[in-house]
Amino acid sequence: MADPVFLITGASSGIGEATARRAAQAGYRLVLAARRVELLEKLVEEFGGAERALAVRCDVTEWADQEAMAEAAISRFGQLDVAFANAGFGAKRGFLEETPEHWKSMVLTNVYGVALTIRATLPALKEARGHLLLTGSVAGRRALAGSLYSATKWAVTAMGEAARLELNGTGVRVTLVEPGSVDTPFFDEPPQGALEMDDIARAVLFAVSQPPHVDVNELLIRPTSQEN
């Protein structure tokens, strides 16, 4: 059988890029989606070219882009086994911080964009009895002072459980990945003692490598130095 296919949004940097590297090492063929397609094309070359990876420009807030992403995956590889709705970004804490435009873009990306990725990939995942993963956050389990970002991740937590309930009995597994402090481009100055991006990538591959009857629904991953 052909190697399984792993789709990642927000794959051009951070946790998405680190997960792509781990998945490539594990033998997956990759569909890499992000707005910065030039960075994705470099990864495609690194992972073995067009037979092993596909770069797709995708603004996750646009349904047409998401549809095209899923269609491109099936057209190139004929199947989709894992979909990782990972694209997202943050904002400064404080309801008088940032601009309303920044807020709108963040909410659309972190909430609506995740929902669109689920919608776009679900038919292929059902056919493959595959695996859906969502990037949540510790901030999606406890409210942070003045944090609209935290509210978006609470929404992702709810979507993870809502998807699990909808997909129960279909064979599709659902995993919510909830990182604590991670040294990614998300931070201008990463917190001291933060996790490495590869720490999250290894956790993702742990979840997808379980036997079909094992569904790891939540992975809450903090650095040992993180108090909250």
What descriptors fit this protein?
228 residues; alpha/beta; 43% helix; globular
Give a short synopsis of this structure:
This protein is α/β, with parallel strands linked by helices and 228 residues long.
Provide structural commentary.
This protein is α/β, with parallel strands linked by helices. Helices cover 43% and strands 16% of the residues. It is built from six helices and seven strands, in the order βαβαβαβαβαβαβ. The protein has helices at residues 14-25, 37-46, 63-77, 100-128, 148-167, 197-208; strands at 5-9, 29-34, 53-57, 82-85, 131-135, 173-179, 218-221. A seven-stranded parallel sheet has the order 3-2-1-4-5-6-7, sandwiched between helices. β1, α1 and β2 form a beta-alpha-beta unit. α1 (14-25) crosses α6 and α4 (100-128) runs parallel beside α5 (148-167). It is globular.
**Largest beta sheet: what is the strand line-up?**
3-2-1-4-5-6-7
Which percent range describes the beta-strand content?
15-25%
Counting DSSP H or I runs of 4 or more residues, the number of helices is 6
Tell me about the biggest sheet?
A: 7 strands, parallel
Helix and strand element order: EHEHEHEHEHEHE
Share of residues in helices: 40-55%
Mean pLDDT value = 94
CA-to-CA gap between the ends?
45 Å
* DSSP summary, beta strand count: 7
Low-confidence stretches: none
Compute the gyration radius: what is it? Answer: 17 Å
The global form is: globular
Strand-pairing-aware structural class: alpha/beta
